[in-house]
Amino acid sequence: MKLNIVITGGAGFIGSHVVRLFVNKYPEYNIINLDKLTYAGNLANLKDVEDKPNYKFVKMDICDFDAFLKLMQDEKIDGIIHLAAESHVDRSIKDPFTFARTNVMGTLSLLQAAKLYWESLPERYEGKRFYHISTDEVYGALEMTNPEGIKPPFTTTASSSEHHLAYGKDFFYETTKYQPHSPYSASKASSDHFVRAFHDTYGMPTIVTNCSNNYGPYQFPEKLIPLFINNIRHRKPLPVYGKGENVRDWLYVEDHARAIDTIFHKGRIAETYNIGGFNEWKNIDIIKTVINTVDRLLGRPEGADMDLITYVTDRLGHDARYAIDSTKLQKELGWEPSLQFEEGIEKTVKWYLDNQAWMDNVTSGDYQKYYEDMYDKR
Ligand code: NAD
Ligand code: DAU
In CATH, what class is 4-216+252-281+321-341? Predict the structure, then answer.
């Protein structure tokens, strides 16, 4: 079957992995990467697919309703996989308006344009799909009832490792009440509600997924893991918020991209699926693992850089613990994570160390100038 698909935010971290997977796996599809290229968008993330015949990049703001409606009509869009967003919690604390504009109004603009276009077709919503990518942060924070960690009560998955601990009794389920705390998670929660409202009100075929923290290649170095790998390499301080005891649930980004592929094709309309690998870690434990790995791969004595750890003032409203229960996705659609965390971290650290040019480019700001010039000349 031939499908015309728009992937929004395809020049970002997760979006670039989703674009790569779809372009390579489905040569019969037309894949349009729609991205505004904010500071977080980098077309160098997609160098390996930019010349493929089934790939096209369109520079566009998701808030531009008219332009998006025209794109839907011109390209006869069947499916939208929506990842474009402002994604960094610290930035949302400083500048919440930008998050409301992009994450809420931008999502609404896409929904409304998709509605107008699809409802104008004889087949209306038949064979169409609006898939919205969201986060576990909309559920709020879980209690840390087991600060030392316990073996979780479920059977292991492919991602489970020696560590495989849970720091509380409860998890985020698809039925967990929304209770966002940061402006970022509040804006994502609002967009999730709009997506579900378009199904309930107009019958639009929507799906929402809520995923845990991703890690892997091409993540912008404002986020914990790439920021710390780069700082360790350059022997710069590692700013650990609070006591470093907050817990996050980590998933390798390619496993998230595979889940998105599975859900886009096989997920049930109007459903929500949680995506995660049952892989909880305290920040400080991850940081120590990353330090040991960077040191070893750079030929330094393991742990030599532990003194870079610098405890700083905590993030405002810092959520204590996230932990996703992805049993529904695993049982219903047969997806499971492919990597154990220790393997994923090794691969990730190695990628950033081997791709220092990518990191230098991003941290110097040059990545945007290169592509701005390229598109200006077209
Ligand atoms: P990112 O910040 O790396 O990338 C976001 C992309 O969206 C960038 O390419 C940016 O240019 C683009 N963008 C931003 N504003 C835009 C606008 N107005 N119009 C068009 N494009 C715009 O983000 P990410 O970490 O890849 O996250 C992607 C999605 O996945 C987000 O919706 C995020 O909420 C969600 N998510 C992220 C994680 C994670 O751990 N990173 C986990 C769960 C869910
Ligand atoms: O849970 C999914 C979410 O994961 C996504 O929805 C977000 O888009 C993504 O940014 C991520 O949010 P976090 O806030 O969990 O990620 P971040 O990498 O910013 O921080 C991870 C943890 O590390 C968090 O507890 C804060 C802490 N931290 C972060 C930074 C950048 C530090 O201690 N020091 C730092 O410098």
Answer: alpha beta
